[in-house]
Amino acid sequence: MTRIRISQAAADLPRRGRPLLGAALALALTLFLGAPAAAAVSKDTALSSEDKVCLDCHAKPGLRKTLANGESMPLYIAPNGFAESVHNSSGCEGCHSDIDVKAHSKEPKLVKSKREHSQGLMEACRDCHKKTMKQYEDSVHSAQVQAGSAKAPLCSDCHDPHATRSAKDTTGGDNVACQQCHKGVSQAFAASIHGASGDEALACKDCHRTHNIKAAAMGNHLKDQCVSCHREVATSHAQWLPNTARHLEAISCPACHSPGTTRRVNLRIYEGTAAAQQAAEKVGVPQFIKLANTADPKGSGIDGRALWSLLQDFSRNGSDTRTIVRGRLEVQTGIESHSLAAKGTALKDCATCHKQGAASFQKVTVSMAGPDGRPLRHGATDGILNSIESIGSVGGFYTIGSSRIKLLDIMLVMALGAGILIPGGHLVVKLMSARKRKAAAAAEAAQAFKSNESTDRS
After folding, report:
1. What is the pLDDT of residue 107?
2. 123, 220, 245, 327: most buried by Cβ count inside 10 Å?
3. How far does Cα 15 stand from its chain's mean position?
4. Where are the alpha helices (DSSP H) in 109-252?
């Protein structure tokens, strides 16, 4: 900190001159250090006496504690940062009510690890943030924690509890917390049309929400987020895209709006038919991996018959409704899904998908939601979309020109042939027999004439 020295002559001023000196010093502090420093000093004075007792030790830079597992945990707390945080009103005791201040210095609290300490303090978060905690517990992050992940974020991984500012004071494009774990995705997003649009740049929470974050590969919630801003999507696509509704249902937005990316067909397992819900594994019951490995013992990929068998096994294992798959064309990585380009560069060439051997259909996976919300995947054979055995399983993902089933093509040709040959043959036979019918009619008329003539003579 910059120090302002007071000369001995100023110190010897008469008492009546000191108020003037005080005002001058205050003005000097404001001009030299700036208004923010003055505000920080003002905030610091708002700390309670109890908090200041804690900060007598914890405001010492470099203060650390060696934990039971050998980790070194910092214990330094910046006084100004805490004074300006939303937790200032709660004070230290609001979160650390289990600490006896008098005995604390003599008997420091035993902490096994940083993560265990952070996870234990989440109950203190719940006391004030019940709604937020409920949202978090419905998120993929919480599901990963429950599944035993040592990396899934806890409250303190995204929010510094000693310097948390009001949500109103944070900028909408602040993605720093997400970047800690999703660096590659964050870099791709920053270079995308949504990340590089200046004041209109989106934040991670604008699409993924803040606390109740869902697995990106599951459900249709991210597509719904796209439509929430691009409400004209159905109308604008209908101007050039045939069967628009079906395309928007079966193709993820990045599949066309991230040109140059690698695509795949993801056959997602659902329960039910009309109002189908994406199936998910139950904690401790790893059905998908077990059944997929059984259906594909050689590990070469699930084929049409194995997929049908897999779905039948799921239907028999406690499912009250029929198990089906719904195909979706999507990009393969999270980095690619965030590399969205300007709409003028979006794919509009139908041949990208609707041609034999299209690259987008060369990689196929079968997936199901895992207990932590993330997808469990098993590879499928290249021909699963072209097999007659897949009709009952993948009937809703037949792409004209690409996922062609040869037997269906033969049956189509036979149907078309029958539709043409039968009426045509009938017409030929009719034309050929017309002459005979005409001659027979003439003979019958002549016979009738002779009969009439004989009658008249008699």
Report:
1. 79
2. 327
3. 69
4. 114-128, 130-137, 140-146, 155-158, 176-179, 183-190, 204-208, 221-229, 233-238, 244-250
pLDDT at 259 over 80: yes
Q: Smallest Cα–Cα separation from 326: which of 359, 388, 279?
A: 279
Between β-strands 263-271 and 364-369, what pairing exists: parallel, antiparallel or unpaired?
parallel
Q: Strand, helix or coil at 67?
A: coil
Cα 201 from Cα 196, distance rounded (Å): 6
* CA 182 from centre of chain: 13
- CB count within 10 Å of CB 183 equals 10
Euclidean distance between the first and the last CA atom of the chain, given in angstroms as a whole number: 147
The CA distance from 324 to 275, in Å, is: 12
Nearest to 98 by CA among 110, 82, 116: 110
Rounded Cα gap, residues 204 and 392, in angstroms: 39
How many secondary structure helices (H) and strands (E) does the chain include?
22, 7
Q: Which tokens belong to 204?
A: 């991670």
Whole-number Å distance between alpha carbons of 334 and 185 = 6
What's the rounded mean pLDDT across residues 18-30?
Answer: 38
CA distance 116 to 344: 50
State the Cα–Cα distance between residues 432 and 435, nearest whole angstrom.
7
Give the type of residue at 17: G
Pairing of strands 64-66, 72-74: antiparallel
DSSP-assigned letters across all residues of 282-311: BTTB-HHHHHHHHH-TTSS-B-HHHHHHHH
Look at residue 396 in the predicted model and tell me its pLDDT.
Answer: 67
CA distances from 214 to 86, 138, 152, 219, 268 (A): 27, 8, 13, 9, 16
The answer to whether residues 353 and 329 touch, using CB atoms and an 8 Å cutoff, is: yes
pLDDT in tens, 304-359: 999 999 988 887 765 567 788 888 999 999 999 999 999 899 999 988 888 888 88
Could you tell me how far CA 315 lies from the centroid of its own chain?
Answer: 27
pTM exceeding 0.85: no
245-255 residue pLDDT tens: 999 999 999 99
The neighbouring-strand residues paired with 325 are: 269
